[in-house]
């Protein structure tokens, strides 16, 4: 019964979404405010309907109603109860419903923020958002219906990939999917203002910026949570593998990172308007590519959880997005062309443009590497793999240049930089970065690339601290006390200083990535219970082994005590589970994590009764990567607040 | 990781073994290197790598050994050859074209532009 209600709500929501999309556009062009209003309410009501559909699907999972095909395919009786609440987004159809549900909420919030101040734009925004919603709901209703019934009731379901039964399941997939779909919001705002064609004030751009930042930070957190999950559950000691699906989530992030920066240039200098429309289109296209690759794309990947035959639908959708956006861009080209010119090639706007180009370059390389196996197969008849070594070699240097730019761009003034002032401001950062190089050489580091990377990162920290210290000192001189002056400094330009906090977070992330990629040590050990072995400064004793049998898996847990320089630091255990039904083994690592390095041990197999093989990694600075997450989030919130007050302020 | 890929004769066997494991793909689990993968096939392949390194084969010989058996897709980084040349050449060409187009657009803009300086005071 409940599933019929859910299905009805789903179908009704499609009809209302179609009405919402068409009504918004017709109402806009026929200048009929009543029609626009009713179309908007139609879109609002979709939130309610999709919530009902989602709840009914969750009820299906929690009550283990295998008469629903999707529940049958994606759960089973041995699934832990708490996971039945979230298993609905583990497969193709359910994840699409999740995306549609979240998206409908985003639409409602967006429209509320737009309608208040920009009545004339709201209709176009609603129309664009509505069209995308119709696409998703159409796919769900006609091609991937999660509430479809089976003719019979199977006694047990097929279950989901055991790798998904992990705490990460509660946070990474929702964050990642929300991030990917949220790219539509800034895209729709920017495209709508292009479509309407009039120049819009600073406040409008602030609103666009808020949404771009929200989308950016959700994407960022989604990626980081995914890396963290891979690191703790997949048991290979790494966190990023340049896998096609990882790439497809990273590419929209590249696009959005470019966009949040170039929007600033449009706000401050009145240029890049056309460029931003193009960039927003690229970002949204990349998000569509991501969804295409994830759903039955042609590239083999370890992420093939939501696999389906829907790839072609997303490809057509992608084609339409690019085509329609290009038509709007060409049609409105004269309006979008900015009347100001770029002052100088030696200015902040030029640095931002260079950053944008480099992000497009790195996106392009990533896309090329991701799809190349298909191209090679089709044109040369040879199947090749493009993996981590390729990306590290080709993307690595470009990413390093982008990071380096992060140290210089914020110091350059808008308009035209003067060399004398610049020299003064870059002196301290340059000296500290030189100091870092000397320090690293004294410490005995010999590899060139990480030394360059650490020098660049020190330089960035130098410029940011220099900026903050200068600002604070000038306020202290005006008679404010130390804490108040720093606080007031941040509040004086929240978007700028929020950006600095984010940059600090990125630096910390990059420190972790550099340290762990270049200085990780790994070794395999054959152990018997009771034995002690050494790696570096660590020694570890294999204390105990415990076997457990569950309905769906056999688990072997090995316990270790870990000593650092002969001093006991922790008891950890690593678990290896075998799932006969899936013929799949998964290992959970035991990790002792400190700021300096992670001691990471993972079971890689049992030879016979007592003897087992373990792989031990010493991964330096990994914790820094996870710590950067909250810092990036904080910085983005500060920046969003800044933009929010710009929107609320009158008379600009 | 970049530096690890450079060939170096002075590296000891163990390091060579690890580097080879990282660039060989496990054919049963697309996208994963045999270093990462927990598939039994990857176990076997790691064992073979170990043996061949001990036997004194060069990295290229070992790679060729696996390519002969599983095809070139076993390499996570395709070798630079006539039919994989496109993979390596397209990024630099693409970048150059992008750069040329952008620079010419900017030059065009410069000529068209009407030299109005915008008023920043309201913004800051």
Write a short abstract of this structure.
Chain A has 652 residues and is an alpha+beta fold.
CATH C-level class of the largest domain in chain B:
Mainly Alpha
Q: Number of DSSP helices of chain A?
A: 20
For the secondary structure, the number of strands of chain A is 9
Question: What overall form of chain B do the CA principal axes indicate?
Answer: elongated
What is the ordering of alpha helices and beta strands of chain A?
A: HHHHHHHHHHHHHHHHHHHEEEEEEEEEH
Query: Which spans of chain B of ≥5 residues are poorly predicted at pLDDT below 50?
Result: 1-10, 113-124
CATH architecture assignment name of the largest domain in chain B = Orthogonal Bundle
Helix segment count of chain B? 5
Range of helix content of chain B: 55-70%
Distance between termini of chain A?
Answer: 55 Å
Give the overall shape of chain A, derived from the CA principal axes. globular
Largest inter-chain interface? Answer: A-B, 58 and 49 residues
Biggest β-sheet strands, sense, barrel of chain B: none
Report the portion of residues of chain B in β strands.
Answer: under 5%
Order of helices and strands of chain B: HHHHH
Tell me the β content of chain A.
5-15%
Written description of the protein model:
- The complex is a heterodimer of chains A (652) and B (124).
- By secondary structure, chain A is of the alpha+beta class.
- Among the domains of chain A are: 1-160, no CATH class; 521-624, no CATH class.
- Chain A is 65% helix and 12% strand.
- In chain A, β2 (532-535) and β3 form a beta hairpin.
- In chain A, α8 (184-196) packs antiparallel against α11.
- Chain A is globular and about 80 Å long.
- With 124 residues, chain B is an all-alpha fold.
- Chain B has 2 domains: 2-74, Cytochrome C biogenesis protein (Helicase, Ruva Protein, domain 3, Orthogonal Bundle); 80-113.
- Helix content of chain B is 57%, strand content 0%.
- Chain B contains 5 helices and no strands.
- The radius of gyration of chain B is 24 Å and the shape is elongated.
- The interface between A and B is large, with 58 and 49 residues.
């Amino acid at each position: 019964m409940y599933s019929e209600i859910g299905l009805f709500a789903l179908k009704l929501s499609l009809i209302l979404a179609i009405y919402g999309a068409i009504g918004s556009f017709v109402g806009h062009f026929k200048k009929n405010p009543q029609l626009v209003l009713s179309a908007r309410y139609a879109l609002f009501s979709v939130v309610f309907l999709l919530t009902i559909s989602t709840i009914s699907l969750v009820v299906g999972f929690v009550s283990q109603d295998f008469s629903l095909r999707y529940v049958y395919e994606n759960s089973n009786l041995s699934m832990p109860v708490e996971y039945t609440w979230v298993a609905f987004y583990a497969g193709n159809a359910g994840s699409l419903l999740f995306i549609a549900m979240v998206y409908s909420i985003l639409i409602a919030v967006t429209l509320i923020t737009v309608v208040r101040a920009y009545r004339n734009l709201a209709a176009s925004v609603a129309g664009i958002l509505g069209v995308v919603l119709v696409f998703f709901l159409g796919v769900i209703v006609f091609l991937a219906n999660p509430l479809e019934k089976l003719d019979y009731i199977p006694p047990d379901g097929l279950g989901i990939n055991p790798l998904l039964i992990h705490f990460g399941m509660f946070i990474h997939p929702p964050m990642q999917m929300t991030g990917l779909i949220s790219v539509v919001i800034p895209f729709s705002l920017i495209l709508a203002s292009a479509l309407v064609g009039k120049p819009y004030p600073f406040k409008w751009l602030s609103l666009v910026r808020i949404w771009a930042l929200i989308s950016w930070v959700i994407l960022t957190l989604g990626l980081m949570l995914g890396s963290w999950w891979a690191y703790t559950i997949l048991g290979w000691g790494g966190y990023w593998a340049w896998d096609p699906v990882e790439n497809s989530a990273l590419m929209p992030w590249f696009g959005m990172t470019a966009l949040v920066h170039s929007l600033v240039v449009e706000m401050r200098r009145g240029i890049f308007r056309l460029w931003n429309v193009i960039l927003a289109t690229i970002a949204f296209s990349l998000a569509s590519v991501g969804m295409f690759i994830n759903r039955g794309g042609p590239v083999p990947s370890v992420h093939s959880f939501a696999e389906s035959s829907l790839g072609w639908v997303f490809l057509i959708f992608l084609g339409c997005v690019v085509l329609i956006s290009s038509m709007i861009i060409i049609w409105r080209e004269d309006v979008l062309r900015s009347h100001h010119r770029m002052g100088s090639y030696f200015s902040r706007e030029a640095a931002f443009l260079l950053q944008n180009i480099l992000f497009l370059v790195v996106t392009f390389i990533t896309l090329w590497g991701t799809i190349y196996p298909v191209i090679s197969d089709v044109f040369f008849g040879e199947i090749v793999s493009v993996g981590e070594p390729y990306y590290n070699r080709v993307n690595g240097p470009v990413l390093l240049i982008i990071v380096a730019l992060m140290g210089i761009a914020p110091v350059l003034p808008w308009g035209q930089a003067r060399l004398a002032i610049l020299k003064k401001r870059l002196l301290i950062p340059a000296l500290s970065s030189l100091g870092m190089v000397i320090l690293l050489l004294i410490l005995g580091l010999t590899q060139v690339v990480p030394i360059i990377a650490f020098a660049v990162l020190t330089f960035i920290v130098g410029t940011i601290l220099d900026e903050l210290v200068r600002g604070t000192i000038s306020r202290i001189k005006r008679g404010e006390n130390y804490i108040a002056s720093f606080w007031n400094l941040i509040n004086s330009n929240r978007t700028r200083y929020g950006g600095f906090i984010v940059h600090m977070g990125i630096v910390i992330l990059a420190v972790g990535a550099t340290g762990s990629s270049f200085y990780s040590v790994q070794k395999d050990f054959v152990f018997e219970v009771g034995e002690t072995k050494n790696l570096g400064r660590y020694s570890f004793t294999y204390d105990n082994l415990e076997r457990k049998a569950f309905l769906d898996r056999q688990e072997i847990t090995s316990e270790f005590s870990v000593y650092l320089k002969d001093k006991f630091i922790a008891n950890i255990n690593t678990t290896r589970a075998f799932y006969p039904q899936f013929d799949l083994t998964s290992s959970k690592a035991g990790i002792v994590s400190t700021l300096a390095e992670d001691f990471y041990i993972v079971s890689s197999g049992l030879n016979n009764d007592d003897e087992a093989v373990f792989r031990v990694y010493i991964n330096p600075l990994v914790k820094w990567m996870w710590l950067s997450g909250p810092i990036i989030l904080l910085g983005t919130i500060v920046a969003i607040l800044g933009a929010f007050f710009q929107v609320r302020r009158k008379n600009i | 990781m970049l530096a690890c890929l450079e060939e170096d004769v002075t590296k000891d066997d163990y390091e060579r073994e690890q580097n080879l494991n990282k660039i060989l793909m496990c054919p049963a689990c697309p996208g994963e290197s045999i270093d990462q993968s927990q598939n039994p096939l990857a176990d076997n392949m790691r064992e073979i790598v170990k043996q061949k390194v001990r036997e004194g084969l060069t990295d290229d010989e070992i790679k060729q050994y696996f390519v002969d058996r599983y095809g070139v897709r076993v390499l996570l980084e395709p070798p630079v050859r006539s039919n994989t040349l496109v993979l390596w050449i397209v990024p630099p060409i693409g970048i150059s074209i992008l750069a040329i187009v952008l620079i010419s657009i900017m030059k065009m803009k410069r000529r068209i532009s009407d030299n109005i300086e915008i008023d920043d005071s309201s913004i800051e």
